[in-house]
Amino acid sequence: MSYINNGDLELYKENDTDTISWVHNDDYLGVMLFTFDGVKIYNLFEDYPHNLSVNEVEIFDRENPYWRDFFKGRRRK
Fold first, then answer.
1. Which of 10, 23, 61, 76 has the fewest CB atoms within 10 Å, measured from its CB?
2. Cα(61)–Cα(73) distance, integer angstroms
3. Which residues lie across from 23 on neighbouring strands?
4. Residue 19 CB partners (closer than 8 Å, separation 6+)
5. Torsion angle, CA of 45/47/49/51, rounded to 10 degrees?
6. How confident is the model at residue 33 (pLDDT cuts 50, 70, 90)?
């Protein structure tokens, strides 16, 4: 895991080669936030996959197969 401090946000990547950074968040239980660019923050449970672009969904799915399978019922047709 690699950590990046982006102003007020502490970001980390599961793998150094990942595009997605996760927001370190101990304040709210069950809230999982992530970002592609360090600016726009997505909430996993509210935004995936419908608020992500097609390209973002492809990247997310490739880097996070567990969550891809967990949310398979939400997939776009």
1. 76
2. 14
3. 11
4. 36, 59, 63
5. 180
6. very high
Instruction: Yes or no: say if 59 and 17 are a contact pair by the CB < 8 Å rule.
Output: no
Stated pTM of the model: 0.82
Q: Is the pLDDT of residue 4 over 60?
A: no
For the purposes of burial, counting CB atoms within 10 Å of the CB of 30, is it exposed (0-12), middle (13-18) or buried (19 or more)? exposed
**By the 8 A CB rule, do 15 and 21 touch?**
no
Strand arrangement, sheet containing 41-43: 2-6, 9-13, 21-23, 33-35, 41-43
- Is the per-residue pLDDT at 55 higher than 70? yes
Q: Are 10 and 3 in contact (CB under 8 A)?
A: yes
Strands 33-35 and 21-23: antiparallel
